[in-house]
Amino acid sequence: MSEIQYNNNDPWSIGEAGFDAECLGKTESIFCQGNGYMGVRAASEERYAARRCGTFVAGTFARFSSREPPEIPNCPDMTGMDFWLDGIPLNLLTGRTEKYRKGLNLKNGELIRSFTWEAGTVKAGFRFRRFVSMERKHLFVQRAEITNLGQALELEIVSGINGQVTNGGSQLFDEGEKAITEKSYLQMYALTTQPNIPFAFTCLHLFYLQGRQIFPAADVRMSRRVLENRYQLTVEPGQTIVIEKMCSIHTGRDRDARRRGDTPEQLKARAVDELGCAADYSYEQLLAESANAWDNIWSAADAEIFSDDATDQPTLNFARYHMHIMAPDDERMNIGAKGLSGEGYKGHTFWDTEIFLLPYFTLCYPETAEKLIKYRYLGLAGARKKARANGYLGAQYPWEAAYPADGETTPLLGPPDIVTGRQSAIWSGLIEQHITGDVVYGLKQYVDITGDTRFLNAYGYEIILDTALFWAGRFEWNDKLRRYELRDIIGPDEYREHVDNNAYTNHIAHWNLSLAVSVYEKLEQNRPALLGRLKRKLGLPDGVAEWKSILDRTYLPKPDAQGIIPQDDGYMQAKRISLDSYKNSKQAASIFRHYNHEQIRKMQISKQADVLLLLLLLEQRFPKSIVKKNWRFYEPRTLHDSSLSLSTHAILAADFGESDTAYAFFQKEKDIDMGENMRSSDEGLHAAAMGGIWQTVVFGFGGLRIVDGRLRIEPSLPLSWNQIRYSFYWQGARLMVEAGHDAAIVTNRTEGKVVSFDAFGIPHTLNGSASIDYEIPVNHQIKINETRMEKA
Amino acid sequence: MSEIQYNNNDPWSIGEAGFDAECLGKTESIFCQGNGYMGVRAASEERYAARRCGTFVAGTFARFSSREPPEIPNCPDMTGMDFWLDGIPLNLLTGRTEKYRKGLNLKNGELIRSFTWEAGTVKAGFRFRRFVSMERKHLFVQRAEITNLGQALELEIVSGINGQVTNGGSQLFDEGEKAITEKSYLQMYALTTQPNIPFAFTCLHLFYLQGRQIFPAADVRMSRRVLENRYQLTVEPGQTIVIEKMCSIHTGRDRDARRRGDTPEQLKARAVDELGCAADYSYEQLLAESANAWDNIWSAADAEIFSDDATDQPTLNFARYHMHIMAPDDERMNIGAKGLSGEGYKGHTFWDTEIFLLPYFTLCYPETAEKLIKYRYLGLAGARKKARANGYLGAQYPWEAAYPADGETTPLLGPPDIVTGRQSAIWSGLIEQHITGDVVYGLKQYVDITGDTRFLNAYGYEIILDTALFWAGRFEWNDKLRRYELRDIIGPDEYREHVDNNAYTNHIAHWNLSLAVSVYEKLEQNRPALLGRLKRKLGLPDGVAEWKSILDRTYLPKPDAQGIIPQDDGYMQAKRISLDSYKNSKQAASIFRHYNHEQIRKMQISKQADVLLLLLLLEQRFPKSIVKKNWRFYEPRTLHDSSLSLSTHAILAADFGESDTAYAFFQKEKDIDMGENMRSSDEGLHAAAMGGIWQTVVFGFGGLRIVDGRLRIEPSLPLSWNQIRYSFYWQGARLMVEAGHDAAIVTNRTEGKVVSFDAFGIPHTLNGSASIDYEIPVNHQIKINETRMEKA
């Protein structure tokens, strides 16, 4: 069993010090590389039974059959390379491996794996380097440096393109065509299954012996879906041979290919041309070019922690690195629940984007955020399709989204039910409906933060009104109780299926409809022509009387006598059981080994933050005093079996002043992907958790919040932190927050932009190129001390 | 590098003494198990990168997409089992392995793999046993015996059904459904892609500790296309734990399922029921039952060699074993070029069946042969489709056949051409046309040997006449040379594409058409009603005048002044080059590293027997004296890059008295699959070579031949053999031949059946339950001595 290590001297470095052939998935996922266009798992060059290579191009989806949802296809592999040394295959399970290290540089995106290996009479040093270029989005460069530490060596290398890769056994490419161009470029051209997206995979091998380029003869080897070259070389003692493998991917869905209307032949030829141009530069030059593009990203937003714990800053860097490699620069696509780091969740987009990831981009990289939301505008087509299929007007966003126009893409069947032995239905695509409100929440937050009214006019109003139209139809009148309800729902807590009046969903739906009413009335006044066009296009009602009537009579679960908001109609009456054994289980969802969904619904068991998330997102709707009460009530009943749970708990704990409790949750957030469970990231890392980490730092400890369009900055640091520094954009101004335990400084770095915000109940106004500093009230500190005493 | 070993004391045993993780394909293929219904590669239980499991059900084909040919789907794997011993995964690349042996019992079909393994503090003895039941065609039983040779051991086992298996990366099953029945049966139900054949895979685990059944709790583990149970057990020092894994496969194409019209639910339930019934018996009982079925096969025909070389008899047993596990008992299917031992050639049927495999079945297991030929009768639908597609009347058999009605299924693209860099076209589906004559040859041989005129009336005549109709249209008139020709052809020698007048093809087509003329005239006389019906059904001409006219003027290549029959129009004029380096190459087809097809056609290079095969199959058409001359001419120009080449050379060499040369070729035949090239059988073993081995023994050294419907028995033993004994059926009589170097005894074991045959120019008549013995003429012996002197 190996483990993930931080580097105390370099907060941009993470590594693995030992090799574990059983747990390759861990670093394959968390050391994944990418550039928003493609993601490449950090699979080893040499093959092992558990090796799971993965190369994904954002926004490409294919169906294995018409009965299955579209999914992101795992592309043919170019990371694999086989080596034989005097006929002995390189395999770290055999021989003797020393000085093994696999490490990722989070700053420039370079992966380095090195070791010495001895087997029989053979001894050699290996150093593998690779990066996905942040500058040339189609380019992926690998480099193998092999130093002969023994006697004269016959080295055999087989390397090329392996299209036998599948998505968990499902093949999403056709057989394809293989070609060799100019006797050196290997190219595989294949179409995805449904639809037929053309992909060109191209690679080129360059060799250097003792720094001088050499041209060993290539022997072409081909088998089904495989096109490789075999090279044989003699390496004298002490010599170093370098193999550079330049790889590229182009698809017919690429924006430039679309614009040019490339034919297949043009696509193939362009791939060869571009790779040839890249090959005019050295590995170091291409890496420097890519590192420069990374630097431009880093300099656009700060996020620094001055902590006693040297793993805090790397964790934040890790989260930010991954958010950047998973975020597409293209509104036709979005971020998958595993980013581009694995096949998990089929590359589909969930509410994870709006609630967990979008805030980072909206605040720090608003151009990226705009595209992520525009995807939802394009997705109205699919949302309308889903609404119609379910008998509703308006737009009902899919729980899982692939192509914007697809509509619902959630699979229908899950694991076998422990009671019936049959595969259980996956209900979220049908009844987990809060996503429609979440999308609007993300949109509203974007508009509040950026002040981008152009976007609101062009896209935002239409989303807000069309989703309202859905909710207006979705609310059900309960004649007995004289109220509108949402029945047969799954809330954020997915362990409770088929519940009535999930508090989160009722509130977010009500909020969505309220927003639409205010938008409608505003447009009626100010932009009647725009409203008229939207009314005709969407079939909106004439006036908002009916919507208001629903809003007035919506059942909105309120705090009970103890201040607890009931999560759903049955929760408070359900039985409480001990969750200790499940909470301590290394495996998530271990509860399903004993109970099925129907049984769980009869118990007070939550998978994840539900009411707490409501308190975080719509805090203006509740008295501040109940937050802590609900936290204390729900946390012990929550298994945190979702990676979306911890950050909400951390932020709220910081909010009510228990920043050390919050910090304990922050520590747990690290473990979601970087922790000692070596299998939990096999299917890809947890994208939303990356956003959760950043939110915990900036929203939680940094105290940043946007409530009803107002900015608030109320830092609350844990004891082990001395200072925090972060920057973000607020309505066009770049703001920098520097906070310690006692005081905070907010600087407005944008000349000519005046900004206002609240801090601890006091409104501040800040001119451009100016700073404000203010004290952090003592009662915050007191609460921290209380917490410490409780724990001691 | 390991190697395949025979057991000097047991001619039914073959084994591998060492473990080589790089070369697993070798024994996976050649130790393959089966029963004609299914074939299971002998893949290890534990996983390695190069492990290629394979489970195939005869006569099931699916297309990955409509652009690709149908292929036999590699089924979900049930052979895999993962073991952890005190948390250490069983993996023979790690720790210390001793006493490794993997061996196949060719007599009862049982595979046993055993070793002791030590890793860290763990030491255990493993013994894996498994068989595919020859009695219960759906059943496959595995048994793992683990003896704790160290301290108390925590054993973890994960075993079940893994549907992530693909055909070289192409998935031919849908996602399927997983279910657990009665909390113990794991079942995966999946449909193949196109068409949708339902498959039910079912397995059950039984545990015994120190011989007593125990019931450890199962923890269900599921991932995409995978359904497994996980068990945890404590094994005390010295204890032996036994896991029996009972597995079954049922498909909707099974004859009984079709007959009953099973619904999916019935199919699934029946699979569970049947497996439950089997589980009432012990491993030993089920193995004994299967061994008994094998004994019935062996006792139906003898084939014994008394040789100085202890590997000769095992080779023959090996060939017979494999022919039986690959031969379906169902006329809707046939034998694939790799049997059921691998994905190679997509499970398709070639001329390999009629020319290489069918004679064994026709002579020894005529019921099986009848079904194999009836497949071709059903295949008339496909053959007509192919003829029409190519603009011909009649029936043109596909070069590669899957479902009988499919027609041509040869893939269109092969490896990249060394000159153009583009994938080369595969022409055999279009222009390798001798298959149509070969099918008729096999049919005629069956009728000659069995005297089965019922079959001829019901099926045979229609095949003969409809193929003749194709040939009559296919022959092209050369007005300049005033003759009918076949131009743009590939003969049996596939290295020469687009040749004119390949001698083999011209002759076999002419023979086919001649046979049709005699059949037509016979039916005209004796069965005018049958002929009338066939004329109407097939659109036959009114009378055979036109066919006769073609036959009279067909160009049939004849021996030249030196006695050499030109293989095709360009062969004698082509350049001769040295083939030494290619002949000595370990890799077949190494010539393509230097030349492409177009270049090879300009040289005297043959892949395999071509003219020689013509001399073997249609010996009545040529003077006996030219056989040796042509052998001496063509053999040095032949690379034997096809596994179909050696047996023809061996048989002819035995024919012209050089039985030691023949024996040298027989030795080479062993190497096709059993030899030291550890990669040549990766895609499956060479089915036709199994028939070639038997033919070399019985047709070559045993001197059995059928010419123009007459039986001939002229044994010619190699020096190292003392005696040969073989039996076969001739027109309903079971004949036994026992031959030494000087004399032969032929015994007719069937009461009441009179048999006539020729031997060395003398016709014999043999009554039932009688024997004839006769001398083998001295000139045969002299030739042997001549050969010896030449070689000395």
Describe the structure.
Helix content of chain A is 33%, strand content 25%. In chain A, strand 6 (81-85) and strand 7 form a beta hairpin. Chain A is globular. By secondary structure, chain A is an alpha+beta fold. The first copy, chain A, contains 22 helices and 32 strands. The interface between A and B is large, with 50 and 49 residues.
Short key terms for the protein model shown above:
5-stranded antiparallel sheet; disordered C terminus; 792 residues; 11-stranded antiparallel sheet; homodimer; alpha+beta; 22 helices
Strand content of chain A: 15-25%
Number of strands of chain A: 32
| Multimerization state | homodimer
Q: Which sheet architecture does the biggest sheet of chain A show?
A: 11 strands, antiparallel
Low-confidence stretches of chain A: 781-792
Mean pLDDT of chain A: 95
Helicity range of chain A: 25-40%
Q: Biggest interface and which pair forms it?
A: A-B, 50 and 49 residues
* Count of individual helical segments of chain A: 22
Shape of chain A: globular
Report the C-alpha radius of gyration of chain A, rounded: 27 Å
Span of the ends, CA to CA of chain A: 33 Å
**Helix/strand/pairing category of chain A:** alpha+beta
